[in-house]
Write a structure and sequence with these properties.
The chain is of the alpha+beta class. Among the domains are: 1-43, no CATH class; 87-137, SH3 type barrels, CATH 2.30.30.30. The chain is 23% helix and 30% strand. Strand 3 and strand 4 (99-106) form a beta hairpin. The longest helix is centred in the middle third of the chain and has 31 residues, at 54-84.
C-alpha cells in the first residue's frame, strides 16, 4: 500500500509556526500528524504489527519442549517397567550386546548365565539390560 503525503502550511506572511502533514491512503482514510514545533520530528510513529503475537510464540515453544522431552522419558519408563518384570530363566540382551539367561535378581544387580557349557555367569546392573528376548517372540 503506497501512501501519498500532503504537506500544508498556514497562509500567513509570518514564519511558519507549524506544518500539517497527513497521508492519504488508497482507502481514502487520512491520518494527521501535527508537531508542536516546526523543527520537531513527529513524536508518535505507528509500529508495524508482527506476524506472530508473543503468546503464540510462547505456546509453540512449550509444545516443542513437550515433544522433545516426552519421547526419551517414555522410553525410559518402558525400559524401567521391562526390567522390573524380569524373572528367572528370561533370555535378555544387554546394551553391550551380551545375550544371557537371568539366573538371579538381587535388587539392582542381575546375574546372567552367558555360557551353558562352562556355566559362566556375569553380574550386570539392571540399567544395562536392553531387551527381554523371552517376551518379544
Amino acid at each position: 500500500m503506497n501512501n501519498i503525503w500532503i504537506l500544508a502550511q498556514t497562509e500567513t506572511n509570518e514564519a511558519p509556526s507549524h506544518i500539517i502533514s497527513k497521508p492519504i491512503t488508497s482507502e481514502g482514510e487520512t491520518k494527521m500528524t501535527v508537531p508542536s514545533d516546526s523543527n520537531a520530528a513527529a513524536t508518535k510513529r505507528e509500529t508495524p504489527k508482527s506476524l506472530f503475537p508473543p503468546w503464540l510464540l510462547l505456546a509453540l515453544m512449550v509444545v516443542m519442549i513437550f515433544i522433545l522431552f516426552r519421547g526419551p522419558r517414555k522410553k525410559q519408563q518402558e525400559l524401567k517397567k521391562m526390567v522390573q518384570s524380569l524373572e528367572k530363566n528370561d533370555r535378555v540382551r544387554t546394551i553391550g550386546g551380551i545375550i544371557g539367561t537371568v539366573v538371579d535378581i538381587n535388587g539392582d544387580i542381575i546375574t546372567l548365565k552367558v555360557d551353558e557349557s562352562n556355566n559362566t555367569k556375569i553380574h550386570v546392573v539392571s540399567s544395562a539390560i536392553g531387551k527381554n528376548l523371552s517376551k518379544e517372540k
